[in-house]
Structures are given as C-alpha cells and as structure tokens.
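Re: that backbone. Tokens:
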C-alpha cells in the first residue's frame, strides 16, 4: 500500500528539470500566497499586531495627470494601475497608523512577480529605505514626512524584469514580520525605458522616441513591387487591456520571468508567437484567398481587435498576412517600451537550400518546373 501511495505522489509532483529547485516561473498572472504574519517563533500570549507600526493606506499617484505617469511617459495607457519605466524614479505615499519613527521603526518594500519569486532571479525584490538613490539600481528614500504619512521615491533597476509586479510593505517587529494584505490596486507595471541611458533599449533622439514608442498610428505598405498600396494602421498600444494582452504573449511563449528583462529574448519569442504556426500563436496566415471561418487579411485596420480576441479566446485569429503580422508585432514592442517601426520589403528572396542564390528549374518545354523549384521571390 505504501508503494502505491508513493507512486501516486510521484505522479502528482510537477516535473523538474535538471538542478532546478522550483517549477518554471513563466506566467505573470500566477500568484502565490504571501503570509501577512511571518512569526520568528512562538508568539507570546500578549502579542497584538496593532501595537506596532501598521500601514493604513498606500497612494500610488497613478492617475494620468499625476507625477508618475507624466514623468514616465505612460499617461496615454488606458489603465487604472501604476505604469512606470525601469531605471527611473517614481513616487508613492504610505499612511501609517501613527507617525513613523526611524529610530525604532523598520519597514521595507517587497516587489514580487510570478508564482515562485526568487531574489536571485529578479522576481522577488526587497527594498530597504536608505539615504540616497543610485542610478539604475533598486532603492528607496523618504523625501517627505507629514503627520502619519511619508512619501517615498523609489528607483527601479535599469535591467529589471518587465511585467506586472505585486507590492507589499513589510514591517519588522521583535516577534515577526507584518505585511500588508494583497491589494491589486497597488500592482505596478514596469516597462522598458528608451529614455534611460542604462537601459538596453535607450534611444537618444526625442523625435524618434515620439515616433517609435509613443505614436499609436502609422502607415503600412502592401501589395507588390509593381502595385504598391498603403493603408493606415492603428497600433493602439495604449488601449484598454492591450498591455495585459502583450504580457500574456510572453506567458504563451513560456518565456521564463527571469528572462523578461532582456529585449533580445523578448523580441525573439514574440516574433515566433505572433505567427500561429507550430505554437498556436496569435494570427493564422492564409495566402490562397480562402478565408473560411475568419476575416480576410485586408479587412484589418489595426492590432487592437486581433490582440484582444486572442487574449480572450486563447486561439489563433483568422486570418493575416505579412503586414498584419508586422502591425501586431509593432504594437507589442511599442506597448512594452521597445522602440520599433515597420519596414516594408519587396522582391524578397526565399533561398530554401541555403546556397545564397536563387535556383529555378525548367522543364523540357522551358517552363518553370514547380515540383523541383523550391526557391522563390515574394
């Protein structure tokens, strides 16, 4: 009987790879339970958490007209949450149940992302309050105190993970750590920062930042080299739920959270998941003028409907072609803060046997033999 039980337990355990101590942490949406009271040992009978410093409220300054979204160029996002860019300071206010006394009170901030936060993976970030901030490194300092409230300036790392973080305030007591309860209103989205020199996506031209990050409409060229057509395209990277839809694409691609601070990794996995082939990605392509159970590629005028449909259904959206893939990919990149633009290419050579030339085989009548000719020009 004991052998049967142990076999069943083995089946229930999540598969672990190699030396990994925890399952893969590749979903921004999944959460774990964080204890509000973390006792150091047995609590004395007279212990009452209300006797110690306690957080009453947290103000995030997250409205479009307030300082954080204004300074971080995120005021266009249609979202009630705080959205900031990494490597740049932002502000919050903490209201306590009594005046904060730095001589005896000790508290710190905790930013967590994903289900299995780890400090060495950059998915659990404890921040002690100090006297100064170092550019491009996590830190916090008090910039104003009044009655029971303090205002903190927080600096995020210029290389930190990009995504939606949960915020907790932890207070130290002699008997254990008291944390704030889970409050989704304090969730903080951290994006790439083309305005920060220490960020890998830094762009030093303000006009280019305006165009390649903040502009939400553009022109897409299509057609063929002898009949070039253009159409307007709504990227819509600031529209409601688009940021969450873009973060979901990285979950769909199963990109580890610890790798989401690297723009190269993000670009590679996103370029794959935009296409539905092999991985059930965003858009199903069709080039044979048959669009059964879907929409013709020419009917799309923007990325928003496509991304929201995929986000809600989790099934490929039918149908797209080159410019549709490009438009949606551009929305994804700009939404996360990676500067991007569309480039249209005509007469594109497909060298299928990698000999760096185009091979065309003719039949005995001098016509193209389509059975053995694999190279093409699109």
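Recovered sequence:
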């Amino acid at each position: 009987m004991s052998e049967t039980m142990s076999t069943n337990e083995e089946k229930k355990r999540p598969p672990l790879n190699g030396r990994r101590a925890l399952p893969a942490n590749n979903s921004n949406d999944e959460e774990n339970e964080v204890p509000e009271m973390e006792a150091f040992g047995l609590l004395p009978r007279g212990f009452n958490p209300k006797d110690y410093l306690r957080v009453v409220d947290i103000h995030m300054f997250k409205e479009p007209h307030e300082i954080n979204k204004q300074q971080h160029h995120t005021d266009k996002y249609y979202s009630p949450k705080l959205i900031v860019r990494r490597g740049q300071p932002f502000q919050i206010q903490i209201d306590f149940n009594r005046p904060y006394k730095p001589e005896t009170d000790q508290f710190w901030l905790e930013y967590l992302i994903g289900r299995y936060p780890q400090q060495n993976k950059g998915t659990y970030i404890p921040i002690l309050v100090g006297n100064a901030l170092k550019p491009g490194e996590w830190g916090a300092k008090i910039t104003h105190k009044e009655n029971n409230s303090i205002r903190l300036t927080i600096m995020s790392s210029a290389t930190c993970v990009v995504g939606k973080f949960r915020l907790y305030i932890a207070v130290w007591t002699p008997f254990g750590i008291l944390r704030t309860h889970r409050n989704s209103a304090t969730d903080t989205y951290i994006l790439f920062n083309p305005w920060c020199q220490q960020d890998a996506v830094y762009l030093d031209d303000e006009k280019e930042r305006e165009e390649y990050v903040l502009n939400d409409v553009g022109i897409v060229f299509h057609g063929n080299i002898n009949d070039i057509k253009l159409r307007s395209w709504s990227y819509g990277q600031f529209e409601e739920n688009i940021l969450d839809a873009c973060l979901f694409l990285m979950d769909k691609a199963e990109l580890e959270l610890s790798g989401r601070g690297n723009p190269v990794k993000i670009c590679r996995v996103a370029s794959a998941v935009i296409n539905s082939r092999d991985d059930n990605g965003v858009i199903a392509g069709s080039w044979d003028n048959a669009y059964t159970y879907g929409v013709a590629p020419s009917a799309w005028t923007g990325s928003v409907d496509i991304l929201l449909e995929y986000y809600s259904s989790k099934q490929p959206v039918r149908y797209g072609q080159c410019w549709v893939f490009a438009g949606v990919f551009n929305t994804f990149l700009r939404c996360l803060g990676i500067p991007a633009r569309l480039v249209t290419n005509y007469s594109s050579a497909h060298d299928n046997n990698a000999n760096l030339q185009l091979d065309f085989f003719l039949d005995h009548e001098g016509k193209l033999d389509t059975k053995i000719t694999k190279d093409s020009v699109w």
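Residues 216 and 235 are 5 Å apart (CA to CA). Residues 1-18 have pLDDT under 50 and may be disordered.
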